Amino acid sequence: MIIQFEIALNPRKRGFHLITTEILGALPNLPRIGLLNLFIQHTSAGLTINENADPSVRIDFETIFNKLVPENDPDFIHVLEGKDDMPAHIKSSILNASITIPIENGKLALGTWQGIYLGEFRNHAGSRRLICTLYY
Amino acid sequence: MIIQFEIALNPRKRGFHLITTEILGALPNLPRIGLLNLFIQHTSAGLTINENADPSVRIDFETIFNKLVPENDPDFIHVLEGKDDMPAHIKSSILNASITIPIENGKLALGTWQGIYLGEFRNHAGSRRLICTLYY
Amino acid sequence: MIIQFEIALNPRKRGFHLITTEILGALPNLPRIGLLNLFIQHTSAGLTINENADPSVRIDFETIFNKLVPENDPDFIHVLEGKDDMPAHIKSSILNASITIPIENGKLALGTWQGIYLGEFRNHAGSRRLICTLYY
Fold this sequence. Notes:
Three copies of one chain form a homotrimer. Chain A is α+β, with helices and mostly antiparallel strands and 136 residues long. Helices cover 23% and strands 38% of the residues of chain A.
């Protein structure tokens, strides 16, 4: 069985954001066992799983990703869409366009400290669209 | 239902390459809803989803990945297979061996600006083999 | 068909470790065709696919990941759980919480040189729990 639906995430400012609650609110009743694939249809944002408790973790993520891919790199040639654009593409691929999460006992089988992150890498982005595919 | 087949990608020079057309050409008729998993059977190349329009994005990807994992790092100890070899392994894991793409309305549900990238990290590589698994 | 089970990995010291044999030993008889999803329920460790032969590759992985995300970064604000904690979260997302591997002819379809890696990013971690989901 496969069920598929779209989620339009609320727009968020640049940075890393916990979206677990928003995802859970959009899911139908879950099967006992299965897998959920989330796929973001954008190339300047990404998805990952990480720490769900301390907001300072998400701030440090933004700090470190900005160091890994600095905006002012003089070697960038794709610069017409703004200083944040090319770094956003790279960060999107370092993170991921897609994550797959198991479903166990009718719930997402996230560990105690795991949440779903949106990495928003543009300075002024709108809503981000996810394709959710549930198979069981 | 699961269908599985292999694709031997055309050899490409070192760098990031858009392979969407080559993948689409190898796919059978797609179901209305499903998922496609692409898995590359190599440890010095990788797959990701990113911008499909401006070739300068792929050039900047190569530039930045070479800065993230410099070839001349004196701390590398795995050096017998060439200066490009150990960085290729690291880059392969920063990118990914495998991507999962949803199928919606009988098509890959890529966003408007999304394409499938091969990251080729060796200086002189041959054809790369992908295992494609389609489930629906 | 979906089968799901948990694996408690043996505790390992900080670094990159080949866990292919441990995973294979925990798997049931595999179907002819399918996919295996491995999901680690922790935010300071990760999974990837990489070179399975030369142990020096895993040492270089540890070296480079420590350079990508240095422990002594004065800009970290999430520091209460130890100097290794925040870098561990970042490394976990650079690697991955989850990998999907095709099954072909009743075996994991890993390439000749591919193995499954655990990236253990804490100095003193215990057993790590994986959710394994096999669908075919």
